[in-house]
Amino acid sequence: MSLTLFVLLLSISLSSILGQSPTLILFAYAQELSDTQVNSVSARLEESAQLSWELGARAQAILELNATTYSVFSNTRLPPASNVPQELKQPLQIYFAIAQEILANIPSTSDGARALMSDGSAADPASNGITVLLANWTGLDNKNVDYEAAARNQLDFLFSDAVPRTQEGAISHRVDQLQLWSDFVYMVPPFFAYYGVLTGNRTLVREAYEKIRLYRQHLRDTRTGLWKHILLGTAGNDDGYWATGNGWAAAGMLRVHATIEHSEYADSFKKEKEDLGSWVSEIHDAVYKHIDSTSIFPNYIDRPLNVSGNFYDASSTALLAATVYRASTHLQQHAFIRHAEQSRETLFSLNPDAHIGDDNDAVSPFSGYRHFTPEGWLTPVVNPHSYGVEGSRSAEGQAFVVMLHAGYNEWKAAGRQGSAGGWSRFALRETVNGCGKSLLCLIAVIVLGFGQALYLSV
Ligand SMILES: *[C@@H]1O[C@H](CO)[C@@H](O)[C@H](O)[C@H]1NC(C)=O
Ligand SMILES: *[C@@H]1O[C@H](CO)[C@@H](O)[C@H](O)[C@H]1NC(C)=O
Ligand SMILES: *[C@@H]1O[C@H](CO)[C@@H](O)[C@H](O)[C@H]1NC(C)=O
Ligand SMILES: *[C@@H]1O[C@H](CO)[C@@H](O)[C@H](O)[C@H]1NC(C)=O
């Protein structure tokens, strides 16, 4: 208890010194990840990311957290600097190591169209396309390795006859059959858009939008607004509203929007940007209708939890919340911030029965956390290699936590738009729980609550 009380008193004094709402400072203590915690999540991400799209998601997470000026969400004009600034050389080392490893495993870059990695998915390897493009752009390895050819081959592969497509031109997510997966929107269109912006190829930027438009036409259910997971194939379709798939779609659209927005095409793609923005909010509107009082999504959004194949999934919850913060800072859409805040506070909080002061940093940065194991694995999560089954370690889930943390921090820095600024019911309940049986602590909470109400009313 004593630490709780200390934090409460500290927040009162700090708030008077800083002229800030005490809640903000309390929040800062209770529901944000520390650097140590984010590094622990990042370490588990690095250990577990092996498959093509896991590396692609990890690459994006590294940019969003540690090299933000190279992330499309930063307010930097695209194309980015070709000379990597000194302070980013070290953070980008592990990022470019991904491109180096991928290239080391390609037998030859001189033989035309081919994917960056061999994979049953036509789309997933392309999630590493931007990493390889940036390796070329910044002159990695003194141009002794042909990153440009590798990126071009990946692009050509997607447009080649090796990959099936629908009559209107929607590229298949799979190589062996024509099949559309919601995941595609994260893997391919951001690569097309980035490629187009780097090479001044307007057609390619337009393709990024066009592929999303076609995918939405097939996968979005007009009644619920939710995206179905997998359609059109001869085997292995899944017409359920997979939560992670809805997150992939929203996150992919946000990246394409941001890429266009920061490029020379910002003015000439107004209608496309508008569509992308409204398609993102359409997903948020549809998914958050179904979230229950736990603020954690089930694996299949509209199915009861007692149905087989359904369970609470912290992984999609983190991704979707991350997209809400990005939509707020980037698209000025704030309607779902309250939901994202509740999900984030829940994901980043201690167990109700673990008092704040019980956390022992020396043992584990995550001891007593509700949604992390002591080693820093997000939990519970869908098995990332078998989407209808609960798993235990998810590389993509680890990446989503990093994206959530990064997206939240930028939203906070931009002035927390869309938040009432008040003490959420969640935070109040947690703090009262944290007080245990201490009367003094409860009194402090009441005083703080009144202080805050007063603060907000003036
Ligand atoms: C970000 O940088 C920190 C400090 O170097 C590092 O520990 C962490 O692993 C990096 N995060 C990611 C996602 O790579
Ligand atoms: C590769 O980098 C060079 C600059 O070094 C640039 O001129 C070229 O357009 C880049 N290629 C791609 C596909 O981005
Ligand atoms: C743009 O990219 C597409 C797809 O690779 C290609 O067919 C086309 O020739 C490119 N256009 C220009 C002007 O380079
Ligand atoms: C799931 O729960 C609902 C409502 O609690 C109940 O009506 C239904 O029979 C349950 N289904 C299964 C498969 O247990």
UniProtKB/TrEMBL annotation:
A biological-process GO annotation: carbohydrate metabolic process
GO molecular function terms noted in the UniProt entry: hydrolase activity, acting on glycosyl bonds
Pfam families: Glyco_hydro_88
SUPFAM superfamilies for this protein: Six-hairpin glycosidases
Extent of the signal sequence: 1-19
Domain of life of the source: Eukaryota
InterPro entries: 6-hairpin_glycosidase_sf, 6hp_glycosidase-like_sf, Glyco_hydro_88
UniProt KW keywords: Glycosidase, Hydrolase, Signal
Record protein name field: Six-hairpin glycosidase
Record organism: Coprinopsis marcescibilis
